[in-house]
Batch of 2 targets.
Target 1
Amino acid sequence: MSSEPRVKPKILVVDDEPDAVELVAFNLKAAGFEVITAGDGESALRRARQESPDAMVLDLMLPEVDGIEVCKQLRRHPRTAALPIIMLTARAEEMDRVIGLEVGADDYLTKPFSPRELVLRVKNLLKRRARNEEDTDVIQAGDLRIDIPRHQVTVGDREVQLTSTEFKLLTVLARRRGRVQSREQLLRDVWNYESLIDTRTVDTHVRRLREKLGPAARWIDTVRGVGYRFRESL
Amino acid sequence: MSSEPRVKPKILVVDDEPDAVELVAFNLKAAGFEVITAGDGESALRRARQESPDAMVLDLMLPEVDGIEVCKQLRRHPRTAALPIIMLTARAEEMDRVIGLEVGADDYLTKPFSPRELVLRVKNLLKRRARNEEDTDVIQAGDLRIDIPRHQVTVGDREVQLTSTEFKLLTVLARRRGRVQSREQLLRDVWNYESLIDTRTVDTHVRRLREKLGPAARWIDTVRGVGYRFRESL
DNA sequence: CGATCGGGTGACAAGTCTGTGACGACCGGG
DNA sequence: CCCGGTCGTCACAGACTTGTCACCCGATCG
């Protein structure tokens, strides 16, 4: 992805082992994040409240106030209730409760994990929260830009002329970004109920859409035997 | 884990041999469960309905109303339909039917069994229900991750390309995590009804699945003579 | 120890799915 | 009325999937 975000997302990394913190922090920084750290639960809570990070990587085992407690406390306050949290733990079995309602972490990783995977998870979590693509006016994917109120699509600085069906198909796909949508679903959403239409018609329109999108067509995946998907990233 | 659950889960133990009941009850109590008991099918049904236990350990051989009948009856009523049931039996061969849809037990143990294993199974069953794996969007097992709406499977940070049949097979296995599923049952769930298909076909698909999953294939167990199982843990 | 059974494996032919080009129907504007 | 553009359908080819089979091997059992 070429366009750097204006402001680096700030990630709070919490672990009582300095080496672990260092490893995680290094990789997140390399991926373009701003990183702040904490070594125990108390200071984690303090920093989370004062510096309002965009996401948090939280070790489960901490001296005194452990990760679960930190998580719960954060969830109680409105200001931090929605903070995306990724839990780190040594054993997968511990995590059953963590993910569920009881604690409310958003994701978890078991040690040892690949740094690349951690970075991926953090990115996904941020993307999901920040984008809130379901009801946004403008959807951006690389240099593809979909401006819904203007009914306008651009690839780079080139404007793409789409018919209204093509436009609607594209927006429906993009709004459920990442999720596969069956042809039947697309028919319902794009063609409103008129299910008398052949599902293969969807294919034809996808083809025309891809043709017009040119290089940006790569954002539309075919999932064989299932349907189509607008990619999360390239 | 340090934090004890607020309320002890209540387990109903059913066997016509008092010694067996005693043995099981003792071990479950030692593991922190509350235990209630029954010596025959009739009273088992009564207690299951009146005292709404969290799980049930049920001997297959009972005078008059046997374990299979108890199981079936419980499944018929909405209030007890989801009650996790572990069947006890003398011979493994009997269990093919018990596990399948016909009866609907969740797990089984063949006598003689180690008390420790029984306790493990009970815990797992409860965990599973708490986790609500039956209808979650994302199932995670170690570094294997199954994202159902995205129709996407990753091992660590590597994405695995599965065909739709393979994907469905994997999700069906993973959703009933820990429980053995017979080939017949898998055929029903993955191939919807079309039981005209050879059960050996399941083997082939499991093979292809394992091939693609690489190291994460360890999550899929073969249970000789019965079927396949998605491991609870490695 | 040999026989039997169940499951893993590689190959394969038939079937299924999708991309593609073409076509006729339709519509609104000249 | 003609025309350009859009739309739904179709037939076809190529790629991929999938169910089956024969074979082998290790486990199991007598």
Target 2
Amino acid sequence: MATDAHREFKNRLYGQFARIGKALSSPHRLEMLELLAQGERTVDSLAEEIGLSLANASQHLQVLRQAALVDTRRDGLFVHYRLADPGVCDLYHAIHSVAERRLGDLERLVREHFGDRAGAEPVPMDELLARARSGRAVILDTRPVGEYAAGHIAGAISVPVDDLQRRLRELPRDRKYVAYCRGPYCVYADRAVEILRGKGRQARRLLEGFPEWQAAGLPIHTGLERGAIR
Amino acid sequence: MATDAHREFKNRLYGQFARIGKALSSPHRLEMLELLAQGERTVDSLAEEIGLSLANASQHLQVLRQAALVDTRRDGLFVHYRLADPGVCDLYHAIHSVAERRLGDLERLVREHFGDRAGAEPVPMDELLARARSGRAVILDTRPVGEYAAGHIAGAISVPVDDLQRRLRELPRDRKYVAYCRGPYCVYADRAVEILRGKGRQARRLLEGFPEWQAAGLPIHTGLERGAIR
DNA sequence: GCCATGGTCAAGTAATCTATTGATTACTGC
DNA sequence: GCAGTAATCAATAGATTACTTGACCATGGC
């Protein structure tokens, strides 16, 4: 019967799409994707940062791999995982955007945790680009240095938030600072702004994070040396 | 401990995003979203088309509603479900696009079912827009008439694929036809093209479907009368 | 009021998913 | 080859999810 064959096809078709949906259905896996959006990482480092056992992290990563969202590369003892496709970032942002607009619980949660963030006047990406080009702002990458090395906003300097306190002398008082981190829900940049303001600097955070900057096609650099912005 | 509070926040945060992922993790729910992208529908009509029991369909719809992907409206005896936000379409397309690029199984499945579709030279959206504006093509909406009424490509006429055979006399031989349907994986337009070509008409299908046209911001109309394209 | 219809709720079972544990594989350096 | 580390595999118990059934609620027509 033709209709049965057709049903069967649809079941398989939507089954394929559901593979991707299933991969996105676990909080831990979503957190992994966000970390991988900063650059490739080993199983061990993901497990530790998220607070999972090694075996558990490995299994989650394999779910992601079977959904073709991530890829691997072996280097000696280490297996490095990375996002398989820029489209995975789009997917991630599509979820963010629906969640932000439609989930009241999310808004409430963020408000409770961050307080009224609008008071700190976050800088949107296009404004930062303009300010950086004209040399009117120093851009601080507050993520761990490994993530900076894997890719950062062109012209940014690496000041992991944990090092900020003791590296303050490198940051003159007469400049304006914009700190960024992993994304809008990451606290590193907020903490950095707090510290900087406490020490008399003018500082604001980037509204978004590195993955959004990259996805927007704005200038980035890789490696540890500071790349100039253009 | 601050780190514990922070972990707790992250768990809740990603838990919120995972609500959306969970909603996308079932083939049946994805099929529902695709149908809802054509326009609002009742529980019963969704259940019947997908082949689910009424109770089961209702429960799936509630998962979608709790993830804030759909909304409802009651009209007398009927409860109409609709997509809650255009962002849901984006989300859907993001899944499609990753799946198309990365899932070999999907490609294989589609190839087996549709054969080599490239031979039928599907028309991309921008080309159809140009051809329609200059009057060089008749656009046929091959979906059920209810979906046409809920929204269709401006200038298209409604010819549900099941009615096509007996309405052929309405379609003069000296025109060129472009048929479209629910999306790239829907067979209605393919069937229509087959029938039309079998009866000596020049016909091609639109590569995408109505939701993609709408998401692209191209001109649409609602209602049963034929709206002119501009 | 009663009935018919569309839809939801509640309970139960089968299937699936998650996280843990301990064993095993893959590779490096000696 | 052996020891040590990174990661995966295999087996399991506990939690979640999917679907069915039958009861229940909401609305409109009589």
